[in-house]
Each structure stands twice: as structure tokens, then as C-alpha cells.
Design brief:
Layout: E1 2-9, E2 13-14, E3 20-21, E4 24-31, E5 41-45, H1 54-57, E6 74-78, E7 93-94, E8 99-100, H2 110-123, E9 129-135, H3 137-148, E10 153-159, H4 167-181, H5 195-209, H6 212-218, H7 230-245, H8 248-260, H9 270-275, E11 280-286, H10 294-303, E12 308-312, H11 325-338
Parallel strand pairs: 5-6, 5-9, 9-10, 10-11, 11-12
Antiparallel strand pairs: 1-4, 2-3, 4-6, 7-8
Length: 340
């Protein structure tokens, strides 16, 4: 049975930029039962606006009758701090002021998130993780955790992610933040601040998540049409959809978190950092991913000892790691047989 939990770390959390959170609440889910020797843990790291229920957004991989079946495994997923779904975030009350953080919420890096993953792991008394997996922002967390604690994970599966966030990816994120900044309400200390700007930001993001071919196929125009195109409706719909489930403050914080990612920082570079990973590693790329191009996943695989790289041919772009479940399952199954 899927269960939701939260744990509050009552001590100050020092962040990579030198700031502190007075305390941090970590929302997380567990799915399945931990076996007696605690050897069946599957730890999942979620993507940008994802939540702590991977059987929701990765239901083709995780769940009953899926590859990672909770009848066999104990699946754990933590909502990253800064996110909208239960962990400490900009709408949370700062215990030092008695008021929501709003614009005073500190910057969080991927390494800060991994520190929180470690705090939660120790709280759960888990000493070994059978498989660590994540895609996109979740993959950034996973590879950072594998680098910082190389003896913890037996297996590592990375989807559509990178070792350092690219100038291309940072530019997309900055354009989204510019959209939020230009919403007149953004300066307000209010939970609804910046929501119209976030709608535009999500529209920008969708262009990077998909690609030219995807839009041609799914948002094609009718012959003779001069206005009110499917693509118009789709962009507005996606913006309205994120407005119903997220907040602009968290969107801002997590976009900055994306940009911070660099496993080579203060470790002598990417190659040296990844060379220390001890987990058996599978890296999966999507041929049409324009946000995290396949060469970024190939680079990770080339630097981690004995890692395997698999590329899935898909027109869905970056979102392919949330869609191409059959191909991903086949790749994982084949790799696991080789590493049995």
C-alpha cells in the first residue's frame, strides 16, 4: 500500500551558499514492504514539478504488475525541499518569523537536496539502497548522491539527465524566470503571486520538453486554417494546468536548483567525480531530447566505470522519459540480466 509520511528535521540545515533553513520538513512516500534485511529498497528521485508518488508519474515502471513491483520492492520517494508538495517550501511558515518565507526563501542547490536525502535515509535507518533512479532534475539528484556517497547504492539508473546543467538549459530557465518577474503581482507576499507569469513560464518550458516533430504530430494545423490553432490552445492549457497545481515561488526555486547542478564542482571536474561512482550504472537517453541532449547522458556513461548507455528512439523529446515505458522497461530488464 502506498503511504504518505513527513519528517521534520528540527536542527538548522546549512545550505551550500552559506545560508540556513531553521528546520526542514521532508514529505515522502513509501510503497511496498521493507524486507527483513532491508535489501529491497528502490529510491526514486522526482523531476522538476513532480511529487513524492512515483507510481503516479512513472506508473509504467512502478506499481503492481510493473517492473518495480511493490510486492517485491520497498519504494521510497522524497518530495524535494522547495517543492509545492509537502516539504518545506516558500509558502511554508518560517519558524523564526511566524510568517511564510515567500521571497526570503533561500536558494537550494542539488547538493542541498542530497543532504536532505541523506537525512531522511538515516531517519529511516536504511543502510543500503538496491536501486537509485531518477530522470531530469531527479537524475541530477541521483547522480550527485551516487558521487557523494559511492558505497550506498548497488545500482543506479539515470534517465534524460546530465552531470552539469548546460548554458542552454540555464537559458531556458532564465527565460521562464523573466516571465514570472514580469508578472506585476510577483512582488507581493501572497501565495498567488506570479501565477500569470508562471503560466507563460510553463509555456516556454513545454517548447524544451517536446520538439518540432512532436508538435507537428500532436498539434497539427487544419488545411486553410488562419487562426485559433491547436498549438495555441495547447500552450494555454499547459499554463493553466500548472497554475492549478503549483506555485510560482516553488517554480522559481526549483528552476534555480536545476541551474546549480555540477557534480564536478570542487571535485576536480566531472570526469574525476564520476569516476568515483561504485554503483552498477545504466544511463538512458532519448534521441529527440533537445533540453538534455543524448550526448549529455553518453558523457555520464563514459565517465562512470563499466556503465552502460542505452538510447531510445522517440519523437517525444525530453518528456520521453515520462512516456516511453515499454522501451525503458526493456532496457532495464536487459541490463539487469547482464548484471545479475
Amino acid at each position: 500500500m502506498l503511504q504518505y509520511h513527513d519528517f521534520t528535521h528540527r536542527q538548522p540545515l546549512k545550505l551550500e551558499n552559506g545560508e540556513f533553513l531553521p528546520e526542514v520538513t521532508l514529505a515522502y512516500s513509501t510503497y511496498g514492504k521493507l524486507n527483513d534485511d532491508k535489501s529491497n529498497v528502490i529510491w526514486v528521485c522526482h523531476a522538476f514539478t513532480g511529487n513524492a508518488n512515483p507510481s503516479d508519474w512513472w506508473n509504467g515502471l512502478i506499481g503492481e504488475n510493473r517492473h518495480f513491483n511493490p510486492e517485491q520492492y520497498f519504494v521510497v520517494c522524497m518530495n524535494v525541499p522547495g517543492s509545492h508538495y509537502g516539504s518545506t517550501n516558500p509558502l511554508s511558515v518560517n519558524p523564526e518569523t511566524g510568517q511564510p518565507y515567500f521571497h526570503t526563501f533561500p536558494m537550494l542547490t542539488i547538493r542541498d537536496v542530497v543532504n536532505c536525502l541523506e537525512i531522511l535515509r538515516q531517519h529511516l535507518e536504511i543502510d543500503k539502497i538496491h536501486t537509485l533512479m531518477g530522470g531530469s532534475l531527479g537524475g541530477q539528484q541521483a547522480v550527485e548522491w551516487a558521487v557523494s556517497n559511492p558505497g550506498l547504492h548497488e545500482r543506479l539508473i539515470l534517465f534524460s539527465t546530465n552531470a552539469v546543467h548546460s548554458p542552454w538549459g540555464i537559458a531556458f530557465n532564465e527565460s521562464q524566470r523573466m516571465a514570472i518577474e514580469n508578472d506585476p503581482s510577483w512582488q507581493n507576499n501572497d501565495a498567488k503571486a506570479g501565477m500569470e507569469g508562471m503560466k507563460v513560464a510553463r509555456s516556454i518550458a513545454l517548447l524544451s520538453y517536446r520538439n518540432y516533430q512532436t508538435y507537428n504530430r500532436t498539434q497539427s494545423r487544419d488545411e486553410g486554417q488562419i487562426d485559433f490553432f491547436r498549438a495555441n490552445t495547447y500552450q494555454n492549457y499547459q499554463g493553466e494546468k500548472i497554475q492549478r497545481r503549483f506555485n510560482a515561488f516553488s517554480y522559481w526555486v526549483l528552476s534555480k536548483m536545476f541551474d546549480s547542478h555540477d557534480v564536478g564542482r570542487e571535485r576536480g571536474g566531472i570526469e574525476k567525480a564520476l569516476a568515483g561512482v561504485k554503483a552498477k550504472t545504466l544511463v538512458i537517453g532519448i534521441t529527440s531530447d533537445m533540453l538534455f541532449p543524448p550526448q549529455e547522458q553518453a558523457l555520464i556513461a563514459s565517465c562512470i566505470p563499466d556503465a552502460q548507455y542505452v538510447e531510445i528512439d522517440s519523437d517525444y523529446g525530453h518528456d520521453g522519459f515520462l512516456i516511453e515505458f515499454e522501451e525503458m522497461t526493456q532496457a532495464i530488464t536487459s541490463w539487469e540480466k547482464q548484471n545479475a
